[in-house]
């Protein structure tokens, strides 16, 4: 097995080094005495743990399961430029070791899970953000990202002073276009005169747009130069660069997946993180582990939406909560989405 460098929860500069590590999946328990009892594993997406966003949210769910359920958690990091074969090897090793469930963090794990789940029918496999691969022992943990993004659009449209806001997507794939669709709709429904600058960092099969903060920083700077004073990113680790650029310019950033205001690695910029579109990735991981331990494993589509607080808009920044006109508009929009009065688009 090739070895990896563990990615700690660090600041932007250190986290940007994450993909320099090569791995097929060293676990966090390697080198420690093995405990008896159930174990669960997560295999991280591009950027790895320490991205202050998507992967860290999954890790929080594993941590909670360790604490509340007495489950031993194992983690496996991605490698730079890895293939589907690398993912198959990683998931196979985790399943063979007896971990149950085994969770792939991100849609990129779909081909690998399809292959490995068939070989380990008694193991439950979870995949986050994908419904393309199905099976009797596969749980598809998915979210209504467009709904949370609509609320971000409402907030951005109310907070902007220049009538220009920005959206930065990591990689131009259908999932990330859902974020764009909801955000743009929320902006336009709230302020038809507002302009939305949209940019994607990379095109598949290049997934650096989820991994390299310098790309997010450059894109945000370009939008700032064009007058944007609120920038929303859906770019994982790369998006931390966008937050840095906005904050240093004294403008607002809107985070994604985790409540990025509370991420330790972004503490330097937190005052300018207006809010974040949250996805309850943490509870999706925890709930799947809990279901397996209870002997009633989740399978099929498990969807998290605004109505159940599976997605939402964070209110940690006190400056955001002081903006009563903004928060009132967000609250009304949430009620209208949940009631069905507002239908949020899933494509731009």
UniProtKB/TrEMBL annotation:
Domain ABC transporter substrate-binding protein PnrA-like: from-to ranges: 45-340
Membrane topology: Lipid-anchor
Keywords, in A-Z order: Cell membrane, Lipoprotein, Membrane, Signal
First and last residue of the signal peptide: 1-23
Classification via CDD domains: PBP1_PrnA-like (cd06354)
Domain of life of the organism encoding this protein: Bacteria
InterPro entries, per the entry: BMP_lipoprotein, Peripla_BP_I, PnrA-like
A Pfam family per the record: Bmp
Protein localization: Cell membrane
Annotated SUPFAM superfamilies: Periplasmic binding protein-like I
Keyword Transit peptide among record annotations: no
Family, as annotated: Belongs to the BMP lipoprotein family.
Name this polypeptide is given: BMP family ABC transporter substrate-binding protein
Native organism: Streptomyces sannanensis
Taxonomic classification: Bacteria, Bacillati, Actinomycetota, Actinomycetes, Kitasatosporales
């Amino acid at each position: 097995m090739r070895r990896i460098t563990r990615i700690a929860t660090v600041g932007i500069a250190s986290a940007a080094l994450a993909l320099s590590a090569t791995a097929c999946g060293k676990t966090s328990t390697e080198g420690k005495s093995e405990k008896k009892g159930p174990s669960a594993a997560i295999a991280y997406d591009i950027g790895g743990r320490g991205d202050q966003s998507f992967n860290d949210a999954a890790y929080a769910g594993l941590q909670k399961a360790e604490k509340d359920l007495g489950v031993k958690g194992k983690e496996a990091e991605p490698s730079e430029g890895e293939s589907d074969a690398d993912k198959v090897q990683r998931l196979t090793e985790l399943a063979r070791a007896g971990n149950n469930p085994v969770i792939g963090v991100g849609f990129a794990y779909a081909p690998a899970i399809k292959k490995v789940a068939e070989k380990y029918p008694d193991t439950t496999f979870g995949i986050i953000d994908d419904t393309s691969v199905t099976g009797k022992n596969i749980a598809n943990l998915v979210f209504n990202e467009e709904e949370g993004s609509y609320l971000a659009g409402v907030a951005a449209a109310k907070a902007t002073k220049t009538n220009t806001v920005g959206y930065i997507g990591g990689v131009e794939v259908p999932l990330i276009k859902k974020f764009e669709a909801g955000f743009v709709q929320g902006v336009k429904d709230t302020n038809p005169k507002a302009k939305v600058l949209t940019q994607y960092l990379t095109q598949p099969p290049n997934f650096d747009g989820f991994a390299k903060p310098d790309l997010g920083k450059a894109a945000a700077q370009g939008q700032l130069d064009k007058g944007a004073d609120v920038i929303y990113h859906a770019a994982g680790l790369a998006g931390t660069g966008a937050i840095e650029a906005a904050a240093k310019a004294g403008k607002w950033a809107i985070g994604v997946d985790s409540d990025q205001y509370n991420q330790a690695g972004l503490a330097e910029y937190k005052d300018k993180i207006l809010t974040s579109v949250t996805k309850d990735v943490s509870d999706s991981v925890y709930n799947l582990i809990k279901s397996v331990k209870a002997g009633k494993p989740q399978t099929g589509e498990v969807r998290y939406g605004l109505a159940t607080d599976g997605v939402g808009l964070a209110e940690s920044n006190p400056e955001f909560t002081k903006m009563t006109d903004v928060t009132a508009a967000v609250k009304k929009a949430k009620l209208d989405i949940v009631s069905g009065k507002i239908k949020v688009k899933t494509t731009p």
